[in-house]
Specification:
By secondary structure, the chain is α+β, with helices and mostly antiparallel strands. It has four helices and six strands, in the order βαβββββααα. The chain is extended and about 80 Å long.
Length: 166
């Protein structure tokens, strides 16, 4: 996924270009779940690396749950012609860039959808957003070719307008 810095920050939900050392944070807390969720997009000190991060923090983790869990991490760097490339995109501990078509763009869309929920003061439903933004299938989405149907049988005499029999 290549985009200008402005396009990339817009896709992440920031709305403006970050300068060196600048961050754009969001957060929400849910009393019932006793957890908070925070998201942040930040620029490094040289304005040559953009990071986005989404994590949840549980007040009282149940057995098998971590107190702090990173849901998403993305790193982007300048590429060519004023365009930036997403170099790393990790969602729930997995980087599926080699196996999922459009992984980087799909995970950026995931992050943006989560930011929209945080802006409304809600903890995002990560699984539902992953299903909608990441697991959706589109044409050529599985990086495999091939058709599903057989080619239709065409009779040459019908195509050429030849009448048979008399």
């Amino acid at each position: 996924m290549r985009a200008t810095l402005k396009e990339l920050t817009d896709k992440l939900g920031v709305g403006y270009v970050l300068s060196a050392y600048e961050t754009c944070p969001w957060s929400a807390y849910d009393d019932e779940q006793e957890m908070s969720c925070s998201a942040e997009v930040r620029m490094d000190s040289d304005a040559e690396e953009l990071e986005a991060e989404l994590q949840i923090m549980r007040d009282d983790p149940k057995e098998g749950e971590k107190p702090i869990e990173q849901i998403y991490h993305m790193t982007a760097r300048p590429a060519v012609s004023n365009k930036w490339d997403v170099k790393i995109a990790i969602l729930k501990g997995e980087n599926k860039a080699e196996t999922v078509y459009g992984w980087e763009e799909k995970t950026v869309n995931f992050f943006h959808a989560c930011v929209q929920e945080l802006k409304m003061g809600k903890i995002p439903d990560f699984d539902a957003i992953i299903e909608k933004e990441v697991n959706k299938k589109e044409r050529f989405g599985d990086k495999a070719g091939g058709g599903g149907n057989k080619s239709p049988k065409i009779k040459p005499e019908r195509v050429m307008g030849i009448k048979s029999g008399m």
